[in-house]
Structure formats: C-alpha cells, structure tokens
Specification:
Length: 490
C-alpha cells in the first residue's frame, strides 16, 4: 500500500481511530498494529507475508536461546541460523539473477559463451529494510548489548510496524522495541506535528519528486535522444527526486509513528548542504549508514588496525552498500565511487587543511560553505548517474555526454529543460525546490513548528489548508500514474 494512494487515505484514518480507542490496552493495541501492518504489507502481495512471519519467529526464538547460553560455539550456531534465514531470503529474492548473469558474463571475457536463463523471481517490497532491522536484534543479543523480549506479539509488531516497514528508517530494537511496552495518552500537539510532518513528506514526494520523475525518466530511458545539457538537467533533477522521494517517505513514516505516540529516528538532515562527503553520509539515510558502521565497518576492524585497513574497510562498506541498494553493477560502481572518494578525503585531510588554510577557505563564511557545498553536490550528482542509469553503457554515455557535449547555447532552451514537462510544471519544480531549501534552513535555525504554533489560529489553518491545496493541485495526481517510492525496489 502506498502512502500517496487513495487506499492509504482510507486505511490510515480507520487504523488511527481504532488505535486510540484501544490505546490503553497494551495487548489489544499491539495486536491492532500487527494486523494493520500485515494488511498494509499484504495489500501489495499477501504471499510474501510468510517471509516476515518466518523472520520474526526465527529471530524471536534465536534471541531467547542466545540469551540463555554462554557457550560460544552454541551462540555462534544460533547467530548463524538467524543470518542464514534472513540473508538467505534476501540473497535468493534479490541477488540470484544478478549472480547468474555475472557468472555468465565472466565467461564471455575469456571468449566462452554460456547459455543460462534467469529465474522469474519477484522481489518482495522492503525486504532489505526489515531484514536489516530484525538482524540487528539478534546481533545485539549475541554481543550481549540487548536483552531479548518474551513478548512475541510486541516483537512481531516491532518487526512489521507499518509506518517504516518497507522503506525505513531501519530502527534498532534498543530504540523502538521498548515503545511497544508503553501505553500512550492522546496528545493533540504530538498528533498535529505528526500530521504536519506527513504533509511535508507528501509535498516532497508528490509535488517535487514525482514531477521531477517525468523529466528524469524521459531522459534516462531514452539516452540516445538527448545531449549533454539534457543529461545534466536530468541528473540534477534526479538528485532532488531521490532526496524528496526517500526523505519524503521517512517524513511520512516518522509523522505516522508520531500520531500514534511512537518516536522513530531521524533519517535525513539536509544532506545537500554538506561541505564534505563524510558529512553527506552523516546526513543521508542515517539509519542505513549507522547500521553499516555498527554491523560491518566496526567488525571489519574500523579504524583500529592501521590506515590501509581503515581505507579498505571504508571501501568495502560502500561497495556492499551499493549492492544492498540494487543487484546490478551500476549500484556497485555507485558505492565504489563514494568509497573511493571517502578514502581520498580521509587520506588527504591534513594536506587539504594546510592548502585550504593558505587559500582562506577554512573561514566560516557563506561563500566558503557555498564553494564546498557545490563541489560535494557535483560529486554526488556524478555518482547518481550510475545509481539511476539503466545500464553501464547508458551511464558512460551520460557522463561522457555531459563532459564532451555540453552545449551552452542549449542551457536556456525550453526544448531542453521542458522535456516531458509543461512550462508551469517546470516552474512548480523550481519554486518547490527553492521553498524546500528555505523551509529546511529556517527549521534548522529555529523550530518551524514552534514558530507556527505562536501564530494566530486563522493563520495556522491558512498554512495547513495551503499545504493540502498545494499537494492536491500541484502534486502529480489524477491524470498521472501514482509513482511508487524509489526505495520500494530495494
């Protein structure tokens, strides 16, 4: 079920009312959450509910057994069961065809051609997200950082919690699971702030991301028809499309949880104002980057085993991150680009500081922030080409076209920047992106919700209704197909 669908517009009010009717009864409340979550997920394809149920049962009982034994061999065996089941599902559904194709292609490099057909496998929505969420539970118990729960109902609701089930944030049991043992009183201010956050998320998704997708899809799906300027426009718009699409989902998920009293972790923090790639990854998909830090980077040795191992670990983590995002070499290269640049960034830190100090670039000025911000944005956009391209050949054609076929005369040509869009649609995108920067800037400096709450009721309702009006009138809806969230495919 999509957050930006009529189905969800009917589903959520029903769940919301029932939730607050039974909110004081913990068992009933968690049962309602579980049933609602299974309906939410099963709306897409009920057959894949068994994957969530199996992962839930395996990790629940493995967690209890892990806590009940101190024998290292037994603990490793139990952890292996959890890893085997969860990663086994993930690898089969997501990577089987990728491994088959890679195996066949590797033989072609030596002049031999193998005949092998791929399998007709449907990728379950959100499998990468809930797999990582439930895996962190057993790993934390194995590390003796967490006590297991004895309440199967609460644990099942934690794994399947519908606001963040299919695209995160990837929550840790230490943060979210205890919230299923608490009862909540209806809090008007909390519900209102949750609804406002949901509206902001829908604005980012429907007004910016879905509209930008019209241009991006046209160019990236027909690369032979366009040149360097068209590629550049499409890539920049994709940068905002994927940010508004994914952070929009996170905003809706966090807002949904808030309307029911739950606190979900922040997943994005204005990443496009970053002054280094390291800072970018502290602001982008925070729940995933911290997951890889805690469960892959640190176990590999982190930065404790010398510079070579530190840089190698960084590179490995980002290549794996690329593979997590998608079963294609384009995603692996996307991760490798980030990993390589982070290695360079970390290795040249002291040298860059000396050079930047001489050039006066270390001063805390707007011009310096803008300078470094633009450099990082260009680097991130370069990597986004591989993330979005349908093939390596397309990615090369796009990057080569931007470098060698960038015709300045076409920069302001309507036939270039209105591909797949009407003039008003392009204006809406530009104005919305500008508004997004202003809103995020103001909110970072001062609490925007707090400022709004100090205004008169008439002004507040004017703003609330204005947001709804913008989403309905300017959002891609009705005559356009409702766009799925990009990260559903991961």
């Amino acid at each position: 079920m999509l957050f930006n669908s009529i189905d969800f517009a009917i589903f959520f009010p029903i769940v919301f009312v029932l939730y607050w009717i039974v909110a004081k009864n913990l068992a009933l409340r968690n049962a309602l959450i579980l049933v609602a979550s299974y309906i939410f997920y099963g709306w897409w394809d009920w057959r894949f509910l068994f994957l969530i149920v199996i992962s839930t049962l395996v990790d629940f009982y493995v967690g209890k057994r892990l806590y009940g034994t101190d024998k290292l061999t037994k603990r490793k065996q139990l952890l292996f069961i959890s890893l085997f089941v969860n990663l086994g599902f993930l690898i089969y559904f997501k990577y089987t065809n990728f491994f088959i194709e890679t195996f066949v292609d590797s033989f072609s490099l030596f002049g031999k051609k193998l005949e092998a057909s791929t399998l007709n496998i449907i990728l379950p929505v959100g499998i990468s997200f809930y797999t990582f969420q439930t895996l962190s539970y057993t790993i934390d118990i194995y590390r003796k950082q967490l006590k297991p729960t004895n309440n199967l109902l609460a644990f099942s609701a934690f794994v399947a919690f519908f606001p963040q089930l299919v695209a995160g944030p990837i929550e840790r049991a230490s943060h979210l699971l205890p919230q299923f043992y608490r009862t909540y009183k209806f809090n008007y201010k909390l519900v209102k702030s949750g609804l406002l956050l949901m509206a902001f998320g829908l604005f980012k998704k429907m007004v910016i991301a879905d509209r930008a997708a019209l241009y991006v899809n046209e160019v990236y799906n027909n690369v032979d028809d366009y040149g360097g300027v068209g590629y550049a426009y499409a890539t920049i718009l994709f940068a905002f499309q994927i940010y508004c699409d994914f952070s929009g989902y996170s905003d809706i998920a966090i807002g949904l949880g808030r309307t029911m009293g739950f606190d979900l972790m922040k997943n994005f923090d204005s990443p496009y104002i970053s002054k280094s790639l390291t800072e970018f990854w502290r602001r982008w998909h925070i729940s995933l980057s911290t997951w890889f830090r805690d469960y892959l980077y640190i176990p590999l040795g982190g930065n404790k085993k010398g510079k070579f191992r530190t840089y190698s670990n960084i590179f490995i983590v980002f290549v794996v991150s690329g593979l997590w995002h998608g079963a294609a070499l384009t995603f692996v290269i996307w991760g490798a680009i980030h990993g390589a640049i982070l290695m360079i960034e970390k290795g040249s830190l002291s040298y860059r500081k000396r050079v930047f100090a001489k050039l006066g670039l270390l001063k805390n000025t707007f011009s310096n922030h803008l300078f470094f911000g633009l450099i990082i944005f260009v680097i991130v956009c370069f990597a986004w080409v591989f993330f979005r391209a349908n093939s390596l050949e397309d990615a090369w054609q796009i990057t080569n076209g931007i470098i060698t076929d960038f015709n300045i005369d076409r920069l302001f040509d309507k036939n270039t920047y209105l591909i797949g869009l009407k003039t008003n649609e392009f204006r809406v995108i530009m104005l919305s992106i500008l508004s997004l920067y202003v809103i995020e800037y103001v909110h970072r400096k001062k609490n925007l919700v707090g400022i709004l709450n100090k205004q008169s009721m008439a002004f507040r309702w004017f703003c609330y209704l204005g947001i709804v009006f913008i989403i309905i009138i300017f959002g891609v809806y009705g005559d356009r197909n409702v766009q799925e969230f990009i990260y559903f495919q991961f």
